[in-house]
Each structure stands twice: as C-alpha cells, then as structure tokens.
Write a structure and sequence with these properties.
The protein is mainly beta. It contains three helices and eleven strands; from the N terminus they run ββββββαβββββαα. The protein has a four-stranded antiparallel beta sheet, with no helix packed on it. 20% of the residues are buried.
C-alpha cells in the first residue's frame, strides 16, 4: 500500500497493511496526482505536477523496501501530456501505459531514461462530447497460468507449438 501527502514536497509512504506499519518513507519533489504499483510490487509509479505546473512521471524501485526500508528512484521525466492513470505493464516493469485527457501513451525505460515510446491516440474534444472528457482508466487482465509441464517440454523439444499439441491444450 502506498500513500502520499498533499502539497509541493509530499512524503510518500509504503505500508505493510497487514501489520499497519510504515515500511518506507520517500521524500518526493513534486505534488502527487496518482500512485500505482506494478503487479509484483517492485515498481511504484507516481505522477504529479512540479512547481511550474508541468506534468511529471517518477518511478521508484521498491525491491528493497521490506528488507532495507528503502526505495530508490529509477527515473523521472517531464511530459506535456495530462496523465490521469499510469500503469506498469504486468509483463515488463520497464513498460507503462498512461491515459489522460484525450491521449493514450505507451512508455518505456531505455538506458535508464523514461520516454514516451508511442502516442496511441489524440482524440479531439468533439469526439469526447465537446468538453475534453477524460478517457476511462486502463487495466490489464490477470496473468494467465503457465502451460502444463507436458506442453512446456513439447515446446522446448520442438521449438514451436504443433497443431496437435495446440488442439490438445486448447480443447
């Protein structure tokens, strides 16, 4: 569980909700609008505004929070996009999706730098009812269970999925 104070220099807190104790406190440099953990809880994404009103995205690595009580900033960037939701993908902690006013963006960390890799959509306000409504939140489906062991062995031996194995697995 992560919480944030309001204001220009908020404290972020990562909690153990079962015990009701703070595991880590992070001094954050910008106001906070959204907080979101990756599926495994290793990355905390934070969006907000800096002192000049510019949108900021910051990512913190939380792998050492339980053992050491510390989270390290992975990267931070400024963007012109208004972000209302930012989610780390469940399949790669270096890739994110954001949704904002009239835009959907794909992000990635490459060589330690967070960049918008793809702008999927810029929707004119006329298509959003004329008032620039926000797009709905983004969500990822739960991860699929791994395939049965026999299929993993068949794939490793064959190098690909044969039609017979696919029909047995999918039926």
């Amino acid at each position: 569980l992560a919480t944030a104070q309001r204001g220009p220099h908020p404290q972020l807190r990562i909690w153990d909700p079962a015990r009701g104790v703070v595991l880590c406190t992070i001094g954050h440099r910008f106001s906070v609008q959204t907080l979101s953990f990756s599926l495994q809880g290793r990355v905390l994404s934070v969006t907000g505004k800096d002192g000049h009103g510019r949108q900021r995205v910051t990512l913190y690595g939380c792998g050492g929070v339980v053992q050491h009580g510390k989270a390290a900033m992975i990267t931070s960037t400024q963007t012109d996009a208004l972000i209302t939701v930012l989610k780390v993908t469940p399949f790669d902690a270096n890739k994110m999706v954001s949704v904002g006013r009239g835009n959907i963006r794909l992000w990635r960390i490459k060589q330690g730098v967070l960049r918008c890799a793809c702008l999927l959509s810029v929707l004119p306000s006329a298509l959003l009812g004329g008032c620039g409504r926000l797009l709905p939140p983004v969500a990822f489906p739960p991860p699929l269970p791994p395939p049965p062991v026999w299929l993993q062995i068949a794939l490793a031996v064959a190098g690909s999925l044969s039609p017979l194995a696919a029909s047995l697995f999918l039926s």
